[in-house]
């Protein structure tokens, strides 16, 4: 991660970006025209100040080269703001972002299925520069970027279009790393991308922990249909087990359905699984 991101990651800007809003000041930085962005373009954004601008004018780079952001959607500023001759202020543009740069469109761009859980993703949105706005541009650029554990953007050489349907999906998938105590894995686990060592893989099916699922067997029964959908199987394949995670937040208990290789020796070496069990991906054990 570039050194300049370290301070940014601990600032309010990181929280704003992860919340998916237009970040920063109502300023324009020098660079390429911003009036005609294109879906699929990648950008190497080199400083926090570029994220702090309403417009982001860095030139596109090849998505197979190092980059920070990739445009997954281009849309238009709606009326009545679009009718203004002068570009609206930061707060007005910011309020549009959650509606215009939606998560559903992002999941479609990534090739995500219903059972594909993700982690380490953020959304940023950029409007035309003042000059481009005055020339009639109204396009909003919706970008996706990968983030580190501290929330700071991280570079990648992955083309994210359709990535969850391909062999490189582990970098975006949500997995859990549980701790081993007295020969048993903890009920909870830390969120990690599936490229890091982990003990279970999320299958995007969560439900409240209540009396009907109080036992491990009941939780497995509830999770089984989702696991079969994730694995594209009619029955749980040999060598794969269910391993639901229990997450407690503010006193509320949630069960997160997850799967794991049955034969990985978690009692003696937990956290040695890397990769994904998704049919299009690859999985190995260390």
Automatic annotation (TrEMBL):
Keyword vocabulary terms for this entry: Signal
Pfam hit, one: Septum_form
Signal peptide region: 1-24
Annotated ranges, domain Septum formation-related: 56-212
Listed InterPro entries: Septum_form
Protein name as annotated: Septum formation family protein
Taxonomy of the source species: Bacteria, Bacillati, Actinomycetota, Actinomycetes, Micrococcales
